[in-house]
Design a protein that fits this description.
This protein is mainly alpha-helical. The chain has helices at 4-11, 40-47, 64-76, 86-103, 114-124, and strands at 18-21, 51-54. Helix 2 (40-47) links the parallel strand 1 and strand 2. It is globular.
Length: 142
Amino acid sequence: MRVWIPTTLKALPYRVHTVLTDNGIQFAKKPGTEAYRAHPFDALCQRHGIEHRLTKPFQPWTNGQVERMNRTIKETTTKAFHYTSLEELRSHLEDYLWTYNSARPLRALKGRTPIGFILEQWHKDPQPFKGDPGHYLPGPNT
């Protein structure tokens, strides 16, 4: 966790203010152990000024969107192809996520692509962004 979160945060064009996770041990302490010390994930979030929220216990539908996306990714990668190396999987996953975010219109975004939605938000109010997210789109020099 210590490696990818700061790297990912630097790569995003906007500031992350809240993270919603389930109550798994990778994100939350077991009840009764809160007094000893902060969970490493909470400490990391705090260090980066991110509010960490937990889903309500025994309400699995809260994780539905994440679980559905995980299933979609699995169906289009590991269940559809055989990879001879981790690098091959990583490369295919990168390509898939780029295509998903830049070319696939989503109903939840009223027919816009995720990147199109982010650009639209930036044009409305650039304040929450670190800079122009347009450099994430492919162009003549990519």
